Fold these 2 entries.
Entry 1:
Amino acid sequence: MLQKRIATRGRVCRRQHAWDVAFGWERNCGGRSRSPSVFDAQTILERCQTHSERVCKLVAKSAVGIDLGTTNSVVAVTLHGSTFVIPGPDNQRLTKSVVSYLNDGSHLVGEKARVQGLKPNSDTFSSIKRLIGRRRCELEERMYELLPFQIMSDSPDDYATLVLTMQRALIRPQDISADLLSALKTSAELYLKEKVEDCVISVPAYFGPSERDATLEAAKIAGLSVLRIMNEPAAAAVGYGFGKAEEEFVLVFDLGGGTLDISLLHIGDCVFEVLNSAGDNFLGGDDFDARVLDWILDGCDVEATRTLLTDANALFTLKDASESAKIALSSQDSVEIRLEFPVEDGRAVKIDKTLDRTTFEEISADLVRKMEEILRGVFFGAQTAEGVNVDEDDVEILLVGGGTQMPCISDLILRTVGKAPKKGLVSADEAVAIGAGLTASALVGDIPRDGIILLDETPTAEDIQLLGEKVESIIDQFDS
Ligand SMILES: Nc1ncnc2c1ncn2[C@@H]1O[C@H](COP(=O)(O)OP(=O)(O)OP(=O)(O)O)[C@@H](O)[C@H]1O
Ligand SMILES: [Mg+2]
């Protein structure tokens, strides 16, 4: 049934072919273009000059895709069909989603902010995406305890507001996100040498209306005009499937720092249809870090634990060390954790422990079980809900998000779906931004506008998001 629906929309992106030729993309004998390559900007600029007769000039005003992540943010842009990642304020492809406010009223963003957070007396904020557009009552007690800053509320609706301790002031999560977005915007402008205003921002599929609204507000404060808010798994699927003619089922498993997002899509011939999605906005790498943090403190005396948990910079350092240990355990069997925190009277709390992967997997087993339930629901639920029959041989699994590098995730997928995910089908860190960049480009008409037709859902209602000129005709087909 689904295949028939898709087939009725069948068409080939002929204009895309023209761009492929201009940029020397390889085509196989079946007439399929390969997925867009990620070139660097210099290559693009050189190619533009080489093909100056065929390509008039770079677009006057670029629209960028922004993956505003809990842990890392990435900006991508598509110029004439090729997508590349724009380095952020640290001159790195990934920018740490950390903002630190200094006493003189200035602020730091990215790695410099992270380093500032390790120093005493700093107002440093990370994982803000977990708080944006959230009421305090939605946050778990344990989360309050582990955040290296205080949460209050000065809004009648009880939305979370954060405390700038040194400046004795309050700041809203969307203001912090705006400072991050503003730094990303400036980097993009410096790199592209033009004003950047239009953007597509990706959010977790399970973000509700208030989180989406707060994200839009952050963008507005940063001087960005949001062409579209896009669900992250759909963006990753676009990053993977753009330009592919063949139909296939794609399971996107996106485990980031804050959220788990799983979607099953049918893609092919420019149409990206989300069949089923589920996720958890409070199930991500941060939760694994919290398990390691608990394990580190387990065995410390009660007084020392209390001191560390009430000191913002000690907490920031503990969280940072827990994350590093977790990351190390993806590629090694054990990791040493050595920390020292000065306390009163010249004394210090010393931690010297070794965590092995088996213990790490034991202390986080319940998180993996939760993921398994969600994955089962998405993969097998689509078969009943949509009446499609997808078995493991028919589905391509995309591992997205830094958290998928944990060996327990591949094991979980193999156990549940019956197929081991292939590594490297997409860049786990960049696929979402690349899909958002392609979509932004389609919306401003820099790539063929019928190159991406996205059928996705928002949490409030089934909201078909269609890009491009084929909108009317497809709606007609649905109606008839
Ligand atoms: N090699 C690794 N092993 C385990 N975890 C890793 C590894 N590399 C990164 N991570 C974790 O991945 C998470 C960050 O991933 P990513 O950058 O995809 O998240 P994000 O996009 O910022 O978050 P979200 O999508 O939830 O908003 C962090 O928790 C980080 O510790
Ligand atoms: Mg992400």
Note: The CA atoms of residues 13 and 451 lie 6 Å apart.
Entry 2:
Amino acid sequence: MSATTRDLQRVAAETFGWHELRPEQLTAMEAVAAGRDVLAVLPTGAGKSAIYQVPAVLQEGPTLIVSPLVALQRDQRTGIAERADGEDAPEAVVINSVQRAEENRRAWEVVDEGGAAYVFLAPEQLARADVVERLRHAAIGLFVIDEAHCVSQWGHDFRPDYLRLGHVIAQLGKPPVLALTATAAPPVRADMLDRLGLADPVEVIGSFDRPNLHLAAALHVDEDQRRAAVVDRAAALAEENRGRGLVYCAARAETGRLAEALRSRGIAAEAYHAGLGRARREAVHDRFSSGATTVVVATSAFGMGIDQPDVRFVLHAASPGSLDDYYQQVGRAGRDGEPAVVELHHHARDSAVARFLSARRPKPDSLRAALDAVANRARSLPDVVRASGLSRVRATTALNLLEQAGAVVTDEDGVLHRTEIDADAAVKEAVDHAEGRREVIVSRVERMRLYAETTDCRRRMLLGYFGEQHPQRCGRCDNCDDGTADDVEAPAGDIDTDIDTDAGRAVVHPKFGDGVVMAEDDDRVTVFFHEYGYRDLATEAVRERNLLRPADADEPSTDHVGDDGRGEHNEG
Ligand SMILES: [Zn+2]
């Protein structure tokens, strides 16, 4: 028995006071109400929470919302309470390891009695068998994953805790799943669906374009000069815009240095990174929200949960490791829709550092310790942490790799088991798997560098990365301002009569294997290959040698299959 569109609109208006729903909200809600799995990629401010809040009222069983930050959980609960007050207001409870045991006990009572419409949980809670068991008794009606990009190793904020959600969904008897995120490029989406075990979901994807952001980048060859340029720009923007701003740095030490330099210019600036104590970090958050602090100089740790509408600029004092990270961070500018400035300050060293970091491998010793722990009856992640002496992050990473290597399996009850696979072989396989990801990581670093160095329209390139075409110059980036960007002629039809190269199409290349078309312009096609990452292929070569076939073709033709990759542009 599924709710009709009219039911959804009635609940939206009567319970929450939303008299108008956006088309993408309604489409996603209808799919949720019909019991389908749904992936919604919608920009911040598009009303993602409503997509579960409304159908939840009409469905049997509580809605479970997995949300990574305690602050986010509280905000969402408060949002529900404020909108839906009155006698029949659906009840929302929060369960996490930060609040007092007494509060958790009371929240569980409400769940056990069937009184909770919404249950907010932190992902690490789901590593506990007793928690999953209790949720199974509660008969969850809808499983919502907030910030769902965290499940993908290619997302901008990968969290190993999220990787295990697929198992939990299976343990709970596969209730319908709603995965929500603001940013996910096509490879990230595919990876998310795969890891969550969602077959045939309804995908609702909004536009990634943020027209009010002016995009620019500067290239630097000297670190001191780059630092000086960033400080100058931040000081100038803080003064002329009289608004708040963010400066992102790669290293913790750098945040203090730049904040100090800004304070010496009379700007109310503060540093923020994950190494500061929680009280200190919350204080910086609060002062930024209240406007007492104008500029926060931070590592990527600052951001999730920040929804300040009037951030007028986001500067990067170093390139992040991918355009996924970059786009997520600049997306914090101009949420009120008013003009905002985003500027990347790139140094060739940034790419070298990112490539170096990507070469880090899991230590065979850690893998071995995790494997031994499971062999000795460690049944859950906390058991493995205790038995192996590994940190939680290392243990999670090791278990995930061992699972991919087939040496460890999680059964339907969420219990870990050691398989028959030989330990040496498993460790080697896990190391190789991590190594295989390197190609992809390096290709992402290269995309970031190409963005910094391009003389073409930056918005076109950024949107192309997310699979969105933008043939016209945007007119709101430095390269459009300087006249170095051009309109792209629409390709004259598909490059081959047999193949459709529209963005998002799954294709197969004889050497690189499976991939997804990301973007196409007059002389090249950009494809993300699952094993090799991003590659630019010459359109001419693709056409002549039939290099990209549709992935779903039944009978691959045997023409033109030979040694390949010659159609590849040299990116260097
Ligand atoms: Zn442009």
Note: The chain is about 40% helix and 15% strand.
